[in-house]
Structure prediction request, 120 residues.
Amino acid sequence: MRVPQDLTRERRGPSRAQLILLGVVILVLVLLFSLKGLAVFVTDYLWFENYHLGEVWSGVLLAKVELWVAFAALYLVGALASMTIAHRRCLRAAAGHDDELVQRYRANGVPGCCRSCWAC
Prediction:
């Protein structure tokens, strides 16, 4: 008869060689997808320069960069507002305005006021 320790197997993660292979595959895929974008970028530049419309190409590129920066800033403001609201609610909840179940949960395993707080 076997003891229970013999029946349980230790699950190991992927080997080092598998992780390296996965990293190489991901790197090759990223490079392949990037090469297409780079080829389009260079081809567009050469086409506009061939017809002496380099300023148009620069204007299009500048407009794309400005739009990216504007939407990134808008996202950042929204994310910071969301985190601020969550943090304030978290601090309010830690002050004891919770029901008994939430208080027991926090007492048994959640350090600080909540896991998402950066100030606790």
About this structure: The radius of gyration is 27 Å. Residues 73-120 form one domain.
